[in-house]
Design a protein that fits this description.
- The chain has a single domain (26-347), classed as TIM Barrel (Alpha-Beta Barrel).
- It is 43% helix and 12% strand.
- It has helices at residues 3-12, 17-26, 65-77, 110-119, 146-170, 192-206, 236-246, 264-274, 297-308, 327-346, 350-358, 362-371, 377-387, 396-406; strands at 30-32, 84-88, 122-126, 174-178, 183-184, 215-220, 231-232, 249-253, 277-281, 283-285, 288-291, 314-318.
- Strands 4-6-8-9-12 form a five-stranded parallel sheet. Strands 1-2-3 form a three-stranded parallel sheet.
- α3 links the parallel β1 and β2 (84-88).
- The chain is globular and about 65 Å long.
- The chain starts with a helix and ends in a 6-residue tail after the last helix.
- Bound molecules: L-rhamnitol and zinc ion.
- Zinc ion binds at residues 220, 253, 280, 319.
């Protein structure tokens, strides 16, 4: 079906596809740098710790800041719209000796800002509370050793300064996400103490008077990690409570709940509590929380909630890592999948369906919810890509394969 015909068909159910195209173009998604090198970073050569793991050994992983930046820019060229790039503190750039985490500063991130300006993206940030000797026992901000806690508190504060710098330089508030892997493999005897220490450390970090115009702190919860199966300090309840009290935003990661929980259902409550919702788009598969996202029911449900509650009220970031496939393809596919689900959700007449719910017309509601799934989304997607000068169909894979041959395969 042509875009013109699709436009007419959607108009009949009260949807203005021109407005949809404009609105979709306004949604900036934060692309996670860590898919490009298996959460490696530029400090050590070891893999990630803290209960997260990237499996696979696909050739072509980015080994230097230049390679990562090149891959990111190439991925962005295959994704419609303007987006953001999400950095982790372990991606700081060091000349000579590596600056330790408690001393990281804007100096380590100046080249990233220069790159972001050149490519035309905004930046988001994450302190890195893992892959470090002082996180070797799996405890950072909740560590029983006050010296180790103090080290990580300093890291948390330095990162706030870096986030402020990103926001100010790039003229767009930088969201800075705090995720601490702290937890225990086996049943702890004390569940309260670590949480009290964690809260105390966070208090110390957020005592730093960061400029709210330039950075937005987020706090991410988790259920369990690999090797941290029995107890996570920053659990969902901990995060909800702490974030509310500290007046920062809680972050929902789609991979951090029991497999049968409906994460999309949590969004409306989060919005009521915080006024804004920070979201990590991911896909849990059994005990891995971070597979490449697919256009599945979970993603659809999340996108629908985002659209219904106003995308401007959301901070959307991707979070997964797969080293078993082409890493650049993993980025592009995830971004396009997210955009496609947002588009599908925008092409549903929610006003009509909500009215049916309130009038208790459940038969009509069910029938239409299903029938609308087969409306000509594809024609609108093609138009969106055409206007953004990227290919709409799967031929972007050819570009990836060429890049793999010309660039990635040469990285021994
Ligand atoms: C881990 C969290 C966290 C990380 C990144 C690398 O389970 O989801 O967001 O994936 O910070
Ligand atoms: Zn996450």
């Amino acid at each position: 079906m042509s875009y013109k015909d699709a436009k007419k068909k959607y108009a009949k159910i009260g949807i203005d596809t021109e407005k949809v195209l404009k609105d979709l173009g306004k949604i900036a998604i934060s692309l996670h740098c860590w898919q490009g090198d298996d959460v490696g970073g530029f400090e050590t050569t070891g893999g990630a710790s803290g209960g997260i793991q990237t499996t696979g050994n696909y050739p072509g992983k980015a080994r230097t800041p230049e390679e990562l930046q090149k891959d990111l820019a190439f991925a962005l060229s295959l994704i419609p719209g303007k987006h953001r790039v999400n950095l982790h503190a372990c991606y700081g750039i060091h000349t000579g000796k590596v600056t330790d985490r408690d001393k990281l500063s804007v100096e380590n991130f100046k080249p990233w800002v220069a790159w972001a300006k050149k490519v035309g993206v905004k930046l988001d940030f994450n302190p890195t509370f893992f892959s470090h000797p002082k996180a070797a026992d799996g405890l950072t901000l909740s560590n029983p050793d006050p010296k180790i806690r103090a080290f990580w508190v300093k890291h948390g504060i330095q990162c706030l300064k870096i986030a402020e710098y990103f926001g100010k330089e790039l003229k767009s508030p930088c969201s800075i996400n705090y995720w601490m892997p702290d937890g225990y493999k086996d049943e702890p005897s004390d569940r309260l103490g670590p949480r009290q220490r964690m809260a105390d450390s966070l208090d110390k970090i957020f005592k730093y008077k960061y400029n709210k115009k330039h950075c937005i702190p987020l706090l991410e919860s988790k259920l369990f990690g690999i090797g941290v199966e029995s107890y996570t300090v920053a659990s969902h309840e901990f995060v909800m409570g702490y974030a509310m009290k500290a007046k920062i935003l809680g972050l929902l990661d789609m991979g951090h709940f029991h497999i049968s929980e409906n994460v999309a259902d949590k969004i409306s409550s989060f919005l009521m509590t915080f006024g804004k919702v920070a979201f990590h788009i991911s896909r849990p598969v059994r005990w891995d929380s971070d597979h490449v996202i697919r256009q599945n029911d979970d993603l659809r449900a999340a996108a629908q909630e985002i659209v219904k509650m106003g995308p401007e009220n959301f901070i959307i970031a991707l979070d997964y890592f797969d080293a078993s496939i082409n890493r650049v393809a993993a980025w592009v596919l995830g971004m396009r999948n997210m955009q496609k689900e947002l588009l599908k959700a925008m092409l549903v007449p929610w006003k009509t369906l909500k009215a049916m719910q309130d009038a208790q017309e459940f038969t009509a509601q069910l029938v239409l919810q299903e029938e609308y799934k087969n409306y000509p989304v594809e024609a609108v997607w093609e138009e969106f890509c055409r206007r953004n000068k990227v290919v709409a169909d799967e031929s972007w894979l050819k570009a990836i394969q060429r890049y793999e041959k010309d660039v990635l395969s040469k990285r021994a």
